[in-house]
Amino acid sequence: MARILFVDDHPIYRDGLRRALEARIEGLEVVVASGATEARATVAANAAIALVLADYRLVEGDGFELISSLRATHPSVAVGLLCGEPTQALAAQVRAIGGVACLPKELDTDDLAEAVQSILDGDEAFPSPVAGAGALMSERRRDILTFASKGWPDKVIGEELGITESTVRNHWHHIFRRLGVSNRTEAVTRALRQKII
Amino acid sequence: MRLYFTEFSPSSGPGGVRPLQFLAMLGSGAIALAMTLLLGAAPGPAFAWWLSIVASEIAIIAVNWLYRAHTPDDSRLRAWALAKAALAGLSGLAWSASQIALPVAGDPVSAIIPAWMILTFCAGAIWAGAFYTPALVAMQLCAVLPAGVWLLRHPGFDRAVGFCLLATLPMMLAIGRQAARRYRSAVNDKIEIGLLLAQQKSYTSRIEQLNAERARFFGAAAHDLRQPLHAMGLYLSLLRDNPGAGERESLVDSLAACAASLDAQFNAIIGVQETSALIARAKVHPTELGALFERLAVQARPKAAEAGLQLRVVRTGLVADVAPDILERVLNNLLSNALRYTKTGGVLIGARRRGPLIAIQVIDSGVGIPDDRRADVFEDFLQLGNPERNRARGFGLGLGIVRRLCDGMGWGVELRSHVGRGSAFAVLVPAARGTARAATPATVAAAPPPSAVQGRKALVIDDDAGVRDAMRKLLARWGVEAQVCADGESALAALAAGDPEARWHVLIDYRLGDGETGLDLAGRIRARFGERTTCALVTGEVDAALDSRAAAQDLVVLRKPVEPIRLRALLAR
User: Fold this and answer.
1) Are B510 and B517 in contact (CB under 8 A)?
2) ipTM value of the model?
3) Cβ contacts (< 8 Å) between B300 and chain A: which residues?
């Protein structure tokens, strides 16, 4: 049973994220807060919260300010940002205060759930400076891209990875979205250029 | 120089005779007549003189007429202008001759009148010759010099008039030059304004074009995006009616398909908008087309095989001066397009040298494009043969992207097509002068920056060997330098033996074997190593009293089983 706090001033996104993460991570409870003051009060009252993820833009103050102050008051609570367009500089700042994550909001829910799960298991989730969008590309999807770059059709990739062809196609869909492309060639090209594979 | 011929044209009278010339001929006739009748000048020479004036003007009219008939190009213009200037000089000579033909011996007034005519002619020359300095100089010199020199021969009044006439020449020439200069700068201004206006007009029309294109683009995009949105509304209203389980599932699937379609369309639209950014960062360098084709073919082959089509690549050693990523995107779009519109046969990609250019061809045996739709296929959102706008068949943006990228890079695109037999697209790119640069080796991905806990030192004190082992493994995974101890004494020894400068995170189990509590040990460690250590208490007990005692000692409490996320957060301090 893990509990995390998500701080965002956008109610629809807040609610959507809560539902999506709770549905995907067994035993996870997501509590939400709309601003820094509410977030501080929630963390103080709720000892079970292990992770605070905040949007950078909040109505009062900013998310980074919030998580920095939480680091000082609650050293055993992990903190991170989940914001629109995290820059490398922002990620470095988060890392410098001992934060564990700086995630882009454009992540699809599966990837976000994967990232949150890995944070709960004690890992960090930062976009790497070289890989850009590919930083959070899972091993499996990287493999698919690598095999595709050799010209293998989905069927063969599926056999190699021990998954069905339709699962491979499903992965492609996520890869396209992540890389902002519309077909395999562009995906492989972009992946190569961004040094994801 | 052209103006020298054309400037008067608008005011030219019938037969190309300019009013000024007409007046000159008329005026000179009147003066010759007046001098003959009133001052008793010899009629023969006076008439001959008048004829010479008329002849010289007719010669000029003739050269103007010939000029208009031939409209010579720029290289011949100079010869024409010099010829006309020479004729203008002749007309100057004719006027000068009045000083010889008209005066009556012994009548000083009869010498003044021709001199006065010559000065009038010179003043007129300033205006007429301002377009072309050689003509101006020729007219003034020819009109003044002979008459002046002629007058100098006779002593007395004539010589004085001649001297004065010659004395006006430098002044006349200077005024003429000044007028010519001023006129030239006026003409240049006019030309410049004309050019600027033309430029502005082309900018304006380009902007209008872009605006119209943008409006068209968003109009079409909005139309296409609205369809899945409408459908979603319908499916949602059906869902509200609480349908059966099976029906609900299919509705949810439909909704998911709509969302996916919207997403894909947004990506495609953003792809179009990205083309300008792509062009802005384009880096052109010699690129081997053979390797590029291979890369494209490798990607397209599965799709071709799926559709039962053949994909052929004609091997080539040609090297083009292009931005390879942009060319790849162009050809990729052309290939997908070719595969989409081909039912049987295959698609071929190849390159052929064409002068300084290379024509890269993508040829298919597909449905072909009717002649009257050739230009339209490069429009955004246009799909031939997909009137129902089936989104599974693409969005009709591929060739629009091709057009944008090629326009941006200055590459030509050609299209030949026969309905029912296939289409051939060709992209014309510049051939490279040098040799291909080896593809830059992929730079080794930089290692991710060390995590916040990497290299930290941690000391774990727990009497349970299993806990010690698990903690050591977890900490090693994070790159934390961990030491484990079973009891307080060995922990103190380890801290004393270690680097005296190092900072330690000390994780102390509350219940230690020999009866000492973690709280006590924390106190001892702090007393000896104070500033260098950050202590935390690990306990499985939920005990408010313990928590408050720990808080009083400013100790963080971690509950067992320790959550990795909290441990990591703690070590990151």
Assistant:
1) yes
2) 0.71
3) 185
